[in-house]
């Protein structure tokens, strides 16, 4: 049976205008590319007018060669040997996908088998292997973010990596850190880890390490500022929206998690769909060449998001290395922006040989870097059918058949990791009168369809494009199929027979309300733009930030009938909870998006086998208007929708704190069944602060190759279809016909040829020096030097076992053990405010303790780096410590709104303060 794949619906919703205008024969580029590229250039010029003044995507050329950092040197040396033996057509073949639906995976590159380089399989998605079976459906990114547990972040990444490897996927299309969550309504925030660059960055770093330790190439995505779904894509009638962002905000918020992933050695980066400061993400030379590959020292390869590429030569010059899935804007006709067109563009001199060499070297180096040259399995599944035997190239329609699914079970013991994540993420927002944990004899009435899995089956909607039953993940390419879904109601049934079930979203007209507790399950969903669910095109448009399916009314009705209501929320992000202060709403738990382990994880918390230890990865406001207007969704505009980041680096709690707006529940908030104290805190300076980091070391030399354009008349194998080559209809190849190859070569050699109209600012000369902020993976290595160490003792001051349940004689199973999440926030010296406005506090580190017994303590150490105490100085284009001798305060506490201990960088003394830095005081509610 064919899997339902909805991606393509996008492309048939419009008709392409003709691009076949005649071009002079001597132009150094192919007709197909030039016509559309010229059209794009004209469109870009017109659109640039719409971008507000001050937001610029300056030209930055050429693409820095890869291979200049020591950690990649060995892989580059091997790659250089291999690439030196490749023909031009082999190099272009590995840069381009073979076409959507053409091979088994979400995307597949061409191969260079002659020299031992295989086809690569690129597969979604961030929470597990998509479009297959016998895989684990892990809790989503936002859920692992809510655990604040670095070890679990690594373990989840490692388990995901093992599953991708087990299925034979070379490249995992995750983790996602863009969207960062600037817009609470943004459709894909849940694929990432939370609305703070440090939380996102640490989770990304640990995930990348876990994935890549299994030999799988991780892909950090989407570069960059991809904060909403609607209007994200370019189409012939409208360009994707432009995110207009200033340089400081880019550095301090949106680039930060990418820098962490690059430091962790990530092998691939995926572009965004949208434009940034007016220039499309796949051909934005400033973003890719300058920020990503030069300043952040990214040594792997940059791929396009699926169908995000809008030009051939321009994307190559701007630093794109891989075109995915290979098709041009209109898929499935065997055409491409690259592949054979890229071969042609190199032959005719438009794309320098040097650039194609670098693209190929980056891809091959990443493959060596993960050790994929040693016994890496081939794909054993098909994304497109769940039959064992099927078309080998389904997109071709006429295709040989063969075994496409071997149904390899890759789950191992990963259910335990998935469950640990789902459990540790559960965030207790409110627990009046110690309502939780429940006693084993408590009588329960359960309300809400979300308590039970979708009656049609948990995988019945393609890519989870419906919100029916337990919400374990959002919708879109970031989803995966469930092997099973342990839903809350099944887990509750296993615990108790004192259960009355009302598994609908309409409050029953007659109930006796005799139970001790009402458990009300509600949801809020979102996803990717190619599916609209209940009127929401990815982003939460019509649903707003309210619970779906009249969830608010369900809670309110239950609160009228019961004295003790426990609300359980499965959600992609913040929701507004106007009912939260109703007297009978005693407890609120966020499960976030728990994946397949939604049941037992919840009951282990409800019944107190484990104490909740999740913390919010975003703030929850009282009303949507508490956040700035500029983070609202942008809607239709004639021309290019403009999304201007007028709030600059003030998002989420940074904004709320700066404007003295008390959140409903602050970023980082999460209650425990225990209480914790902090004691014996100290701050040690590890290295003297200077205002600027020392200059980085020079770049290492990168591979060099001959740069002569190969002559297809003397070396036909370089570019021309081999004799008797059997083509699959509509499959994308990198070969040219003999006449096309010779014509392209002649154009390139002719002294009278009109040169390719290179963009303003274009240069082919490599910049061999490191920029002051660059010089290593993630930036100048000095930025990551530890500057302060903060040591503190965390003690569980809670009572031993709890018998708090007034409505029952039996006790809960709570033993008193609990994990705490310590958070550290930096406050910049007051003296810096006149030169750099910095948010009142910013998260800079966190640690989760082990499960501490009552009375037990654990020493925790957090280190802050030079980057943590710096601001991005736009004029100097460097990270600057604004006042090296000034007093930095490192605030310690349990959330951005509950910071009670301040450590001074001047005295090293940490002291309890009566008021926190943001005027919220010490206790929350
Ligand atoms: C998404 C990517 C995804 C790709 C392949 C795109 O629509 O934005 O995140 O990896 O499709 O499915």
Structure write-up:
Its EC number is 3.2.1.21. Keywords: Carbohydrate metabolism, Cellulose degradation, Glycoprotein, Glycosidase, Hydrolase, Polysaccharide degradation, Signal. Belongs to the glycosyl hydrolase 3 family. One of its GO terms (molecular function) is beta-glucosidase activity. By secondary structure, the chain is of the alpha/beta class. Among the domains are: 438 residues, Glycoside hydrolase family 3 C-terminal domain (Rossmann fold); 154 residues, Immunoglobulin-like (Sandwich). The C terminus is likely disordered. The structure holds beta-D-glucopyranose. Beta-D-glucopyranose binds next to loops.
Tell me briefly what this model is.
This protein is an alpha/beta fold and 925 residues long. The protein has 18 helices and 28 strands.
Give the key terms.
925 residues; alpha/beta; Rossmann fold; Immunoglobulin-like; six-stranded mixed β-sheet; 18 helices; 21% helix; 15% strand; disordered C terminus; binds beta-D-glucopyranose; glycosidase; carbohydrate metabolism; EC 3.2.1.21; polysaccharide degradation; GH
Would you give the CATH topology of the domain at 124-305 and 416-671? Rossmann fold
Q: What portion of residues belong to β-strands?
A: 15-25%
Report the CATH C-level class of the domain at 124-305 and 416-671.
Alpha Beta
The pLDDT mean sits at: 93
Main sheet strand line-up: 1-2-3-4-6-9
Percent range of helical residues: 10-25%
Largest sheet: 6 strands, mixed
Question: What is the end-to-end distance?
Answer: 54 Å
Q: Which structural category do the helix and sheet elements fall into?
A: alpha/beta
Which blocks of ≥5 consecutive residues have pLDDT under 50? 6-35, 802-809, 921-925
Bound chemical compounds: beta-D-glucopyranose
Rg, please?
28 Å
CATH H level, superfamily name of the domain at 124-305 and 416-671: Glycoside hydrolase family 3 C-terminal domain
How would the global form be characterised?
Answer: globular
Count of DSSP H/I helices? 18
CATH architecture of the domain at 124-305 and 416-671: 3-Layer(aba) Sandwich
């Amino acid at each position: 049976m064919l899997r339902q794949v909805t991606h393509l619906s996008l492309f048939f919703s419009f008709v392409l205008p003709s691009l076949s205008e005649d071009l002079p024969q001597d132009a150094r580029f192919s007709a197909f590319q030039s016509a559309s590229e010229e059209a794009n250039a004209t469109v870009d010029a017109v659109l640039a007018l719409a971008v507000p003044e001050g937001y610029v995507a300056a030209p930055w050329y050429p693409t820095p060669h890869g291979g200049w950092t020591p950690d990649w040197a060995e892989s580059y040396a091997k790659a250089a040997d291999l690439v030196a033996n490749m023909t031009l057509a082999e190099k272009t073949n590995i840069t381009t996908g073979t076409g959507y639906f053409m091979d088994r995976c979400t995307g597949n590159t061409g191969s260079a088998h002659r020299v031992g380089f295989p086809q690569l399989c690129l597969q979604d998605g961030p929470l597990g292997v998509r479009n297959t079976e016998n895989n684990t459906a892990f809790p989503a990114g936002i859920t692992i973010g809510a655990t604040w547990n670095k070890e679990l972040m690594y373990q989840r990444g490692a388990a995901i990596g093992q599953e991708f490897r087990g299925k034979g996927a070379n490249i995992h299309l995750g983790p996602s850190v863009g969207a960062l969550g600037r817009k609470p309504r943004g459709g894909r925030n849940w694929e990432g880890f939370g609305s703070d660059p440090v939380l996102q960055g640490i989770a990304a770093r640990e995930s990348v390490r876990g994935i890549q330790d299994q030999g799988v190439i991780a892909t950090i995505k989407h570069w960059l500022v991809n904060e909403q779904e609607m209007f994200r894509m370019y189409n012939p009638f409208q360009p994707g929206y432009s995110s207009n962002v200033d340089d400081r905000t880019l550095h301090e918020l949106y680039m930060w998690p990418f820098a962490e992933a690059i430091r962790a050695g990530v092998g691939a980066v995926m572009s965004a769909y949208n434009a940034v400061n007016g220039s499309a993400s796949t051909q934005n030379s400033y973003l890719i060449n300058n920020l990503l590959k030069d300043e952040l020292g990214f040594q792997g390869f940059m791929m396009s998001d699926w169908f995000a590429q809008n030009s051939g030569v321009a994307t190559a010059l701007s630093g794109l290395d891989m075109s995915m899935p290979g098709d041009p804007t209109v898929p499935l006709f065997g055409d491409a922006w690259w592949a054979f067109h890229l071969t042609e563009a190199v032959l005719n001199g438009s794309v320098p040989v040097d650039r194609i060499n670098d693209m190929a070297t980056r891809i091959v180096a990443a493959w060596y870097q993960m050790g994929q040259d040693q016994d890496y399995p081939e794909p054993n599944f098909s994304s497109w059918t769940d039959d064992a035997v099927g078309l080998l190239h389904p997109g071709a329609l006429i295709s040989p058949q063969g075994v496409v699914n071997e149904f390899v079970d890759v789950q191992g013991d990963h259910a335990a990791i998935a469950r640990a994540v789902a459990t540790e993420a559960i965030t207790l927002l409110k627990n009046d009168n110690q309502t939780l944990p429940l006693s084993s004899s408590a009588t329960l009435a359960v309300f809400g369809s979300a308590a039970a899995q979708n009656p049609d089956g948990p995988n019945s909607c393609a890519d989870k494009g419906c919100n029916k039953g337990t919400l374990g993940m959002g919708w879109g390419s970031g989803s995966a199929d469930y092997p099973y879904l342990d839903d809350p109601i099944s887990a509750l049934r296993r615990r108790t027979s004192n259960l009355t079930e009302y598994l609908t979203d309409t409050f029953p007209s007659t109930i006796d309300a005799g139970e001790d507790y009402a458990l009300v399950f509600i949801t809020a969903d979102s996803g990717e733009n190619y599916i609209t669910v209940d009127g929401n095109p990815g982003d939460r448009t019509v649903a707003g930030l309210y619970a779906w399916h009249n969830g608010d009314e369900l809670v309110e009705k239950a609160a009228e009938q019961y004295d003790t209501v426990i609300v359980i929320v499965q959600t992609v992000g913040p929701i507004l909870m106007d009912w939260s202060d109703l007297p009978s709403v005693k407890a609120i738990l966020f499960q976030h998006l728990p994946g397949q382990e939604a049941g037992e994880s919840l009951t282990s918390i409800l019944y107190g086998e484990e104490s909740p230890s999740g913390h919010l990865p975003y703030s929850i406001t009282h009303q949507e208007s508490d956040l700035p207007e500029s983070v609202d969704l942008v809607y239709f505009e004639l021309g290019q929708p403009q999304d201007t980041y007028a709030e600059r680096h003030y998002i989420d709690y940074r904004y709320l704190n700066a404007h003295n707006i008390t959140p409903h529940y602050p970023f980082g908030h999460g209650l425990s069944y225990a209480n914790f104290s902090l004691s014996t805190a100290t701050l040690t300076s590890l290295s003297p602060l200077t205002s600027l980091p020392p200059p980085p070391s020079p770049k290492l030399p990168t591979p060099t190759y001959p740069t002569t354009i190969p002559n297809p008349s003397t070396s036909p194998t370089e570019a021309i279809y081999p004799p008797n080559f059997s083509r699959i209809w509509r499959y994308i190849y990198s070969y040219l016909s003999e006449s096309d190859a010779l014509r392209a070569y002649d154009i390139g050699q002719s002294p009278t040829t009109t040169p390719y109209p290179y963009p303003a600012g274009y240069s082919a000369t490599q910049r061999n020096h490191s920029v002051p902020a660059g010089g290593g993976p993630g930036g100048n290595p000095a930025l990551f030097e530890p500057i302060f160490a903060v040591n503190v003792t965390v003690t569980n001051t809670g009572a031993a076992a709890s018998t708090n349940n007034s409505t029952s004689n039996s006790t809960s199973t709570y033993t008193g053990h609990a994990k705490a999440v310590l958070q550290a926030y930096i406050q910049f010296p007051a003296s810096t405010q006149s030169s750099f406005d910095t948010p009142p506090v910013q998260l800079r580190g966190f640690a989760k303790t082990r499960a501490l017994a009552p009375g037990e303590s654990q020493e925790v150490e957090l280190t802050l780096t030079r980057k943590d105490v710096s601001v991005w100085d736009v004029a100097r284009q460097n990270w600057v410590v604004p006042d090296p001798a000034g007093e930095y305060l490192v605030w310690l506490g349990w959330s951005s709104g509950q910071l009670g201990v301040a450590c001074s960088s001047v005295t090293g003394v940490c002291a309890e303060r009566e008021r926190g830095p943001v005027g919220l005081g010490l206790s929350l509610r």
